[in-house]
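Sequence only, no structure available. Ideas?
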Amino acid sequence: MYKNLKSSIKDLDQKGRVVVTANAFNNVDSQMDMSMRGSFAKTLSEHFKRVKWYLNHDTTKLIGVPIEGRETDTHLELVGQLNMNKEIGKDVYEDYKLYAEYGRTLEHSIGVDAIKYTIDGQVRKVSEWKLWEYSTLTNWGANPDTGLVSIKSDIDWMNIQLNKGDYTDEKFLEIEKHLKFLKSLITEPHSTQEEPIDLKAISAAFINSLK
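Reply:
I predicted one. Tokens follow.
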């Protein structure tokens, strides 16, 4: 699952080291999730060496190396070093620097799985996340009005189906392909001149075909 962040750049030095203030604790986000303080502690301790830093969630565009992840009283902070020996690293650095000069920031998104959580009404209180990657975005973070909230449960449902093992190989591939398609609709920007994409209808139609 991707979570788009109301993030900010806490620090950017001349060597390309970037500190991102990421997920806020004890705050209900646009996906109706509340990350509890300590929810990243286990993944930062046990899994952080496998975390990647991409551009726009594109696994072929590795832009740097995550150096440190830490929890403050209020936020998750991610420290990374851009690869300044690659053109893509230099380009992202220049974008960060330009935005900072005008008091603005690029947006970010993290790829996570909710490991432990409770449901309180419509809010999912997550006490443990698994962090896989974070991305610098050159597009916009997902707007809840585009249908991100409405299809999140459908994406979770399809992830469960992939783990059940009661489909043919062909059907597994079909589910995986549809999941990637839904995630691309979430993360890729769409012109405001276009008709809104009914993500809920798209996912519901596919789920009905599996039942």
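The chain has five helices and nine strands.
Hope that gets you unstuck.
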